Amino acid sequence: MKMNIDPSKLTRTENYQMLIGSVLPRPIAFVTSQNEEGIVNAAPFSFYNVITANPPLISISVGRKPDGSSKDTARNIIKGKEFVVHVVDESNVELVNETSADFPPEVSEVTEVGFTLEKSEKVSVPSIKEAKIKLECKLSQALTLGGTGDEPSCDFIIGEVVNYRVEDDLYLEGKIDAEKLAPVSRLGGSDYEKLGETFSIPRPAPPTKD
User: Where does the UniProt annotation place the signal sequence (predicted)?
Assistant: First the structure.
């Protein structure tokens, strides 16, 4: 037997729990952005994915604060038009999690938790040195979605990747070695997942015509 659950009868929190327990594992975007004073903000987001490869576009959904205002990451990206997405892996996930605390805008999570900043190649926003893969992005579109009327529930950020920065030993013949990267993904609640057993299934050949 399978139950039916009507999302319209659930609270926001209940719908959130259903989604994060069903849409998984989810990749994590560890994002750096910069405000007008030059302070670098860093925060993880697991409502994140690829949109298209032509041009290379990625999307990040940044939920609004309880009072309806935009979070620092969304506000900085919309104003500054640039940001960097870092892949979260086994070596940095503990510090990434620490950056999710509610730091005030004038405090940089990067220095507070012990990460190191370095200059990016094609955007003005600095990158996290400890990350093995960095996607330097320029803002393509920013949309407000969800909620009701004039009170959206998230800022939906679409960024174009203008530079891939990858550690040498991860890159071979145009592909990333996932085992060496050791990425970490999000599950429900406070749970994360490491890269487990992998397997390949070839795509089926196109049907033949008689």
Answer: none
d(CA 58, CA 56): 7
Residue 178, helix vs strand vs coil: helix
Position 150 confidence tier, pLDDT thresholds 50, 70, 90: confident
Which residues fall within 8 angstroms of residue 124, CB to CB, at 6 or more apart? Answer: 34, 80, 82
Exposure letters 19-54 (e unless 16+ CB within 10 A, then b)? ebeeeebbbbbbbbbbbeeebbbbbbbbbbeeeeee
Region 133-159: mean pLDDT is 94
Q: Where are the domains of the chain?
A: 12-194
Distant-in-sequence contacts of 139-145, Cβ < 8 A, 24+ apart: 139/77, 139/78, 139/81, 139/82, 139/83, 140/57, 142/74, 142/77, 142/78, 145/61
Q: What is the pLDDT of residue 17?
A: 94
The DSSP output letter for 89 is B
- 12-194: CATH topology is Pnp Oxidase; Chain A (2.30.110)
Distance CA 50, CA 56 (A): 8
Terminal alpha carbon distance of the chain: 42
